[in-house]
Design a protein that fits this description.
The complex is a heterodimer of chains A (about 375) and B (about 325).
Chain A (H helix, E strand, L loop, with lengths): L3 H10 L5 H5 L3 E7 L6 H20 L8 E7 L4 H14 L3 E4 L3 H13 L3 E4 L6 H4 L7 E2 L4 H15 L2 E9 L2 H16 L3 E10 L7 H10 L3 E5 L6 H11 L6 E3 L6 H7 L7 E4 L12 H14 L5 H20 L4 H6 L5 E5 L2 E4 L11 E6 L2 E4 L2
Parallel strand pairs in A: 1-2, 1-3, 3-4, 4-5, 6-7, 6-8, 8-9
Antiparallel strand pairs in A: 10-13, 11-12, 13-14
Chain B lengths: L3 H16 L1 H4 L4 H27 L6 H18 L4 H23 L4 H21 L9 E2 L4 E2 L8 E2 L2 H24 L1 H11 L1 H6 L4 H27 L1 E2 L6 H14 L6 H15 L3 H19 L23 H8 L3
Antiparallel strand pairs in B: 1-4, 2-3
Helix pairs in contact in B: 3-7, 3-10, 3-11, 3-12, 4-5, 4-10, 5-10, 7-8, 7-10, 8-10, 11-12
The chains are: A alpha/beta (about 375), B mainly alpha (about 325).
């Protein structure tokens, strides 16, 4: 039985589907993302973005002449539930599953989907193991990899100072630990003489950071690097408590963790923080990209919102898959994966994108600072 | 129905009907997925049930035994390339070793202190798993192969849920049999006496600490065996196995139907997972339902939903134990 969300998405998209596509049987596309808990708000935004892109694809005649129907499931940021939902979607006969906010959930789901013969595209989860798993040799990921993100953080810090005391506040899971290892490796590679004054690890759901803030103050760092993917609750809470603690050292958030929703939730405490990201809808080269303009307009029209990076990644995942299916002329998992991995795909929200042979999409990063509640892109 | 042969026939018929349940429910993949999950998580819950019902203690460390079984399966198959049978033996041995250490520490305490100490032990285990590369660290271990229990020419393999069902169901049946036999064994009776009347147990020459440790070891093996099969079904193990999700599932599964009822954890787990699969109200709605049901059960029928069922028999005849209360409790599952 289709979920209430998928029915609503289908109804929303129905008037836009040309007669031919409407007559054909829809291609079911699974979407597994947290819709509740700390990442629930962002997950709902990504869901809207995927539904918006589905409407655009259906408006253009669908995929292989068939409309796309999105089946949405909530993984509750819990691997066991993610596995259950992956099985549920496999049973529903989906052609592809777009998934992934938390790395452990993605790692748990990808083997199950591979065994079921369903193509699995990771939208956001960042752990390195996602692309290295033998159980999913056709892995594809759109979000930037930890190693790409680490390089931009090291380059930014290196441009500011060659010696510094650094405190890491790191989410203790596959994503967080991998990100910190990557950044430290980049420091060494760039010959930056940094002292890691302290590493404070915390579990993903944590929202009370007062003890950590006190420890940071005692460590007297020059920079604090926050690795926190709990954008819905944990990161805003940390930033607010850090500002209240009046530590003073600038905070650098890892790539892609600071979106407009984080800044809005954090309020004034977000001012002054630095980060980098891969997508800004109103900044070049995206602002003049016709595919991006069409997507931004669709999001305004359908959901009255401006997309952030996560939403763009979600929508681009569907767009890349749709273009690969058209190129392969088939829904076959291997054929579609072959049309993405190691290939160049033009005409996406991100412009012409290139995937590495291991399935990782390449990106250009933009460093920014938050000023007066706005993202100001520096480079 | 008191004749042993008649009971055996009835049990065999129920077991056969249970095996056909997925087909009777339509045979969809979702039905198989749900029933496999119920079988594995019910088996996991029986480990805790033995402690809760027979020792009267609330253990919060059983997620660690479940995880131990899963991690042992993952390490032995992925890192060392062993087969599933060796992984099962490894899971049992690893759980026994961990239970021996944890039992020696925690079983000196009682009631609230026991729960607190077992919770602390679970947190320590989770942190060890998160930070020890041998256990995969925070990444966990990926790439667990499909289950292969083939013996000689007999091929016994499973990759997807419909193929897993016979194995999950067999694990459940074995678990039920073990728990049933345990409660009728001298160890089971002794455990109940140690729980219900420790002074009498001492007067009877029973070593309470030793009996509690033996029951703890048994319970650890039961939960670990479930973890072993879960690792093959999910093909990935990670530190989420220590999450409260599994602990809440175990505790609720045991408490919902009522303690010391042979089918209790199975029915409790089945209720929870069926609701989640077939009548889900979304994550928040499901949690609300779970909370309301738990509060209602604990407040209105603290002995579980089964206590609402009219009992046909009063306390049975003596079971060889010293008190009528022990006798009544020890035969309710029969």
């Amino acid at each position: 039985m289709p979920s209430r969300r998928s029915v609503l998405a289908g109804l929303a998209a129905a008037p836009l589907v040309p007669a031919l596509a409407r007559a054909a049987e829809p291609i079911k596309v699974g979407l597994i993302i947290p819709l509740s808990g700390g990442a629930g708000r962002q997950g709902q935004d990504v869901t809207h973005a995927v539904q918006g892109m589905a409407a655009l694809i259906n408006e253009g005649g669908g995929v292989l002449g068939r409309p796309v129907e999105i089946l949405v499931r909530d993984d509750e940021s819990t691997p066991a539930i993610g596995v259950a939902k992956a099985n549920e979607l496999a049973a529903a006969g989906v052609a592809v599953v777009l998934e992934g906010w938390n790395s452990p959930v993605t790692l748990a789901m990808q083997s199950v989907l591979a065994r079921a013969g369903i193509l699995d595209i990771t939208m956001i989860s960042k752990a390195d193991a996602i692309l290295a798993s033998a159980s999913n040799p056709l892995a594809i990921r759109l979000n930037s990899a930890n190693v790409q993100d680490a390089a931009i953080i090291a380059r930014y810090l290196g441009s500011k100072t060659k010696t510094a005391r650094i405190v890491f506040v790191t989410e203790n899971d596959a994503y967080g630990n991998g990100a910190q290892q990557g950044i430290e490796a980049e420091f060494k590679k760039a010959n930056l003489d940094y002292t890691i004054a302290q590493t404070l690890k915390f579990p993903f759901p944590q929202t009370d950071f007062r003890v950590e803030v006190t420890s940071i103050r005692d460590a007297k760092p020059d920079y604090v690097i926050s690795i926190n993917a709990n954008e819905g609750a944990g990161l805003p809470a940390f930033l607010q408590q850090y500002a209240q603690g009046q530590v003073g050292a600038p905070v650098i958030c890892t790539v892609g963790t600071v979106g407009p929703s984080v800044i809005e939730t954090t309020g004034k405490a977000a001012n002054g923080l630095h980060s980098a990201d891969i997508y800004f809808p109103q900044t070049e080269p995206f602002a003049s990209n016709p595919e991006n303009k069409r997507f931004v307009a669709q999001m305004q029209k359908q959901f009255k919102t401006e997309p952030d990076k996560f939403m763009a990644l979600g929508a681009a995942s569907l767009q890349v898959w749709a273009k690969a299916v058209e190129k392969a002329g088939s829904l076959d998992r291997k054929a579609v994966a072959g049309a993405i991995r190691g290939q160049e795909i033009p005409g996406t929200i991100f412009g012409t994108v290139r995937f590495e042979p291991n399935g990782q999409m390449q990106h250009r990063h933009f460093v920014f600072t938050v000023k007066d509640g706005k993202i100001v892109v520096e480079s | 129905m008191t004749h042993p042969l008649a009971r055996l026939v009835l049990a065999a018929l129920l077991a056969a009907a249970g095996f056909l349940l997925p087909v009777l429910l339509g045979g969809s993949t979702l039905v198989y997925d749900t029933l496999v999950a119920i079988a594995i998580f019910a088996a996991m819950s029986y480990g805790l049930d033995v402690i809760l019902s027979d020792l009267g203690e609330i253990s919060l460390v059983h997620t660690a035994f479940f995880a131990t079984g899963a991690y042992a399966a993952a390490i032995l198959t992925v890192t060392y390339g062993f087969g599933a049978w060796t992984a099962l033996a490894g899971a049992v041995l690893a759980a026994l070793a961990l239970a021996l250490v944890l039992g020696a520490i925690t079983l000196r305490t009682r009631e609230f202190a026991f729960s607190l100490v077992t919770y602390a032990a679970a947190v320590v285990c989770m942190n060890v798993a998160s930070n020890w590369d041998f256990l995969g660290g925070s990444d966990g271990i990926v790439g667990i192969p499909p289950l292969d229990l083939s013996v000689g020419p007999v091929e016994l393999t499973a990759g997807r849920s419909p193929e897993f069902w016979p194995f999950a169901y067999a694990l459940l049946l074995v678990t039920l049999y073990v728990v049933h036999r345990f409660r009728r064994s001298r160890l089971g009776q002794a455990a109940l006496m140690v729980h219900m009347n420790p002074r009498l147990a001492t007067m009877c020459g029973l070593d309470g600490n030793r009996i509690r440790l033996q029951v703890f070891l048994l319970s650890a093996v039961i939960s670990a065996a479930a973890g072993w099969l879960y690792a093959f079904q999910r093909a990935y193990v990670g530190t989420d196995l220590f999450d409260t999700y599994f602990l809440v599932l175990m505790l609720t599964g045991v408490i919902l139907a009522g303690r010391r009822i042979l089918l209790g954890p199975l029915l409790g787990t089945a209720l929870l997972l069926f609701q989640k699969s077939f009548a889900s109200l979304g994550a928040y709605g499901d949690k609300l339902v779970l909370g309301v049901v738990l509060v209602a059960v604990l407040c209105l029928c603290p002995r579980g939903l089964a206590s609402l069922w009219p009992r046909r028999r009063s306390a049975p005849a003596a079971t060889g134990t010293a008190t009528g209360e022990i006798g009544a409790a020890s035969t309710r599952h029969a």
